[in-house]
Description:
Blueprint: H1 12-19, E1 34-37, E2 46-48, H2 72-85, E3 89-94, H3 104-117, E4 122-127, H4 132-141, E5 146-150, H5 156-162, E6 163-168, E7 171-174, H6 175-195, E8 199-206, H7 215-225, E9 229-234, H8 251-262, E10 279-280
Parallel strand pairs: 1-3, 3-4, 4-5, 5-8, 8-9
Antiparallel strand pairs: 1-10, 2-6, 6-7
Helix pairs in contact: 2-3, 4-6, 5-6
Amino acid sequence: MKYTCSNTKLSPLQVLEGIEKHPCYSPEAQHRYARMHLPVAPGCNISCNYCNRKYDCANESRPGVTSEVLTPLLAQQKFIVVKEKMPNLSVVGIAGPGDALANWPNTREAIERIKESNPEMIFCLSTNGLLLTEYAAEIIELGIKHVTVTANCLDPQVGAKIYRHIFYRGQKYEGVAGAKILIEKQLAGIQLLASLGVLVKVNIVMISGVNDHQIPALVKKVKELGAIMTNIMPLIPAKGSAFAHLPATNLQELEQMRDLCQIDLQQMRHCRQCRADAIGMLNDIQ
């Protein structure tokens, strides 16, 4: 089945109804509802210079970190136990530790199993967006209404400084060539999903001196494509990553960027940059 973009635009009421129980989309919901990230997606199809998925510390909270990778069956069993203990659990997310769509069979099976246990659960995917257009039909058929895409730039020259390479359709693309494909696929995927009624949030890692000058234009672009909010996040110089030597994003500059972009699109300001196995309220210590 193939879908094409339409002119469908969600009404403010539809957006409100879609985020009222999602703690990552709504600053109010974070105080009432819990989320659960299931680490069923270990592999990734791109190489980001700010990422290191090999390092784990029990006291470390950042994307890509997990203490274990679960099979879909174990994910279902863990969900059942957690839901019994945590009745305010409203969202199950697949956020790695790799990419949800690069591990689509595992991601799909985990969601299908949990839907059997709890058909009313909200499901959320986090992805780099490279395969969004290819899996859009299955995302819609599974009833997934929330997708977060991490997109960091519009210019492939800038992208080449952030991404070392990508793997796409059996080929490895490095530097500008890889970044160009990735950016094109991200933008097309955001537009397609938004046109089909999915609530698309775009995460942007703010890397001072690398992509910060392009963030306002990126926010304008994803708004044009139908994203409902962006989440501009500080760089975490992860140990072992290519960007480990860079300074963490200045928080004052981060807030200034969010304020600037708020003029165009709603900004998420309560993100905790959660682990791939995070469970509980956003304010819980991971």
